[in-house]
Amino acid sequence: MMSALYGCVLFNCVSKLRKQTALTQVRRFVQWKMSGGLIRAGNTATPPTIVAMANRKRNLSFPSSRCLSKSAEEAKARVKRVSIEGNIAVGKSTFAKLLQSACSDWEVMAEPVSKWQNIRSETSKGTEPQSTVSNLLQMMYQDPQRWSYTFQTYSCMSRLRTQLQPPPACLLNSEGTPVQVYERSVYSDRYIFALNMFELGCINTTEWAVYQDWHSLLVEQFGHQVELEGIIYLRAPAKKCMERLKKRGRAEEKGVKLDYLDKLHVQHERWLVEKSTEIHFEKLKQIPVLELDASVEFKSDPVVREQFITKVKNFFNAL
Ligand SMILES: Nc1ncnc2c1ncn2[C@@H]1O[C@H](COP(=O)(O)OP(=O)(O)OP(=O)(O)O)[C@@H](O)[C@H]1O
Ligand SMILES: Nc1nc(=O)c2ncn([C@H]3C[C@H](O)[C@@H](CO)O3)c2[nH]1
């Protein structure tokens, strides 16, 4: 019942989005007409849809809901997008903070864990509307069979929202190599977590088919707005992640077993190292991956920190 409702909400979002996209096309066409219909692309006047296609080939980004000037579009297209992937507690947030402080051309977007821990809903009991808060992360860990599908719909939606956020002005004005860095992505949502939950039997075959269907639809509809140019894979043995998970002591993760981290490690290896996971998006199949040994302690060691930053800089520059 709940799954059907979530599917329905997502479906409504997509059809609204389609309408918005159509409206944007019409608006762009009217603006193009009013400006005399001349956009420099060689010597010919080119309709906006054709320019859009040409720009897509050159990997230029298009605004989702408002029209940006050509130079703003070009500035946006210069911003590269990279996700940090890795097992639970491997050190992504810690590494992300290091990147954030290392270079003003890099903007790090944290995984929205606190949103998953605090889902507000309005209920009307009696006459007064009441607000209740639920912790979906905890619900998922306590009863994965009941809540995994719901969790994946919400985690994926929140990751999508993060990946759709426009770059800040400082990145648009950057003269270096501006990069938006995401802690995980809509791709790890599917190819690590949802897949793992399916393989564990916590997501059933129907839920998995439904998840994959709307995931593909969303990724295809948003196109290059949610594409990544690269992935940083923080790699460490599951045992090391378990040590760190225990040290961190997040309440919801108390029941997490080494076996679960082992399985997630295998999913990361299949996707990012062996490349044996079946991937459904062409660009993602060829994406460059920077692998870093995250088992080393870099927080207290400035030499290791510098080595990491240099590797990341070289990786970004080559994208
Ligand atoms: N290189 C490191 N060496 C030693 N300890 C580390 C290192 N990186 C992170 N830690 C510690 O490990 C714990 C988990 O780190 P962190 O929260 O960054 O992991 P994460 O990958 O972001 O976790 P999650 O998957 O839950 O988002 C923290 O207590 C952190 O201080
Ligand atoms: N089931 C499941 N699916 C996801 O997409 C997902 N993404 C993160 N997590 C869990 C790992 C950490 O405990 C915590 C913070 O990363 O949330 C997930 N769990």
From TrEMBL:
It comes from the Eukaryota. InterPro entries: Deoxyribonucleoside_kinase (IPR050566), DNK_dom (IPR031314), P-loop_NTPase (IPR027417). GO terms for cellular component: mitochondrion. The keyword Translocase does not apply. It catalyses: 2'-deoxyguanosine + ATP = dGMP + ADP + H(+). Residues 82-316 form the Deoxynucleoside kinase domain. One of its GO terms (molecular function) is ATP binding. Keywords: ATP-binding, Kinase, Nucleotide-binding, Transferase. Its EC number is 2.7.1.113. Pfam families: dNK. It is an enzyme of class 2 (transferase). Homodimer. Belongs to the DCK/DGK family. This is deoxyguanosine kinase. It comes from Amphiprion ocellaris. The lineage of its organism: Eukaryota, Metazoa, Chordata, Craniata, Vertebrata. The gene is DGUOK.
